[in-house]
Amino acid sequence: MRFTVLPRRWALLACLVLPCSANAFFPFDFDDADTEGKGKSEIEMSFAYQKDRAIVLNDAGDEMEVATDASNTLLWSYTYGVTDNLDVFINKARQGNPYAGWLNTQVGAQWLFAGDQNRGWSFALMPSLILPVSQRSEAKGLGSAKTNFELIWISSYVSSDYELHFNVGYSGNRYSRSIEDEPRRHLWSVSVAPIWVLNEQWSLGVSLGAATNTDDTGKYTPFGQFGISYTPIKNVQVGLGVMVSPNWRKTDGSRSTTMTAGLSYDF
User: Fold this and answer.
1) What is the pLDDT of residue 64?
2) Residue 66: which of 76, 46, 52 has the closest Cα?
3) What does the pLDDT average to over 202-220?
4) pLDDT averaged over the chain?
5) How confident is the model at residue 70 (pLDDT cuts 50, 70, 90)?
6) N or C: which end of the chain has fewer CB atoms below 10 A?
7) d(Cα 31, Cα 110) in Å, to the nearest integer?
8) Domains of the chain, earliest start first
């Protein structure tokens, strides 16, 4: 599973976006069909830094300046295996910049309903609730003050040398207050991620996909992510990742770049 509790403008940019739990390949923001196993747990903690770059144009369409915006977020996730095929999880996140505060909490489950999660194809569903923040936090851009629902369909193929993961996700995007640029209320995403297992300690991979744009500047937002994972000791995983999301309706270099770093521990 994976994190998805992120600031509003990240919505569905990586699942894609809003909370989730233990990563298929930490620190990627996609999910695999794997579950923890009955009685087992996983804790994840990561840091994400995002920088947005946009070109400001005048009425004639000429470039006036380059505008940038940056934010950073700490994320925590706890997952528990209720049965061998069913996990429950909770995700928390706190933004430090530009406005400090807690973001939406997410609670949910992952059900492995078909296949062998250790070899070959497997399939899972991940429903979750995105719990509301306060009206004051919503006004600051720290999330939504309404409860939203998310559902992700997951398909994974696992072999000794490589893995392949597909995600198709839906998330509600309702807000309690009126917003000048009314965001889309229904967000969809799709992604594919091949992972190469180099040895018992090192793995690397890429994730490519697209998600519904939250505003009317375009229907979809593409994204690409590269990541590397290192297992220094048993049950501990360290990951580094970089995600880039260009505005494909513009040719002026507008884009969003997100860097993530973190670790996970299974017990």
Assistant:
1) 60
2) 52
3) 83
4) 82
5) confident
6) C
7) 10
8) 8-266 (2.40.160.40)
What is residue 43's predicted lDDT score, i.e. its pLDDT?
94
Comparing CA positions, the residue from 252, 192, 184, 253 lying closest to residue 220 is 184
Amino acid (1-letter code) at residue 205:
G
Nearest by Cα to 50 from 65, 32, 33, 29: 29
Tokens found for residue 132: 């509301």
SS (H, E, C) the chain: CCCCCCCHHHCCCCCCCCCCCCCCCCCCCCCCCCCCCCCCEEEEEEEEEEEEEEEEECCCCCEEEEEEEEEEEEEEEEEEEEECCEEEEEEEEEEEECCCEECCCEEEEEEEEEECCCCEEEEEEEEEEECCCCHHHHHCCCCCCCCEEEEEEEEEEECCCEEEEEEEEEEECCCCCCCCCCCCCEEEEEEEEEEEECCCCEEEEEEEEEEECCCCCCCEEEEEEEEEEECCCCCEEEEEEEEEEECCCCCCCCEEEEEEEEEEEEC
- Cβ atoms of 28 and 264 within 8 Å: the answer is no
pLDDT in tens, 117-168: 888 999 999 999 999 999 999 888 888 899 999 999 999 999 989 999 999 9
pLDDT at 255: 76
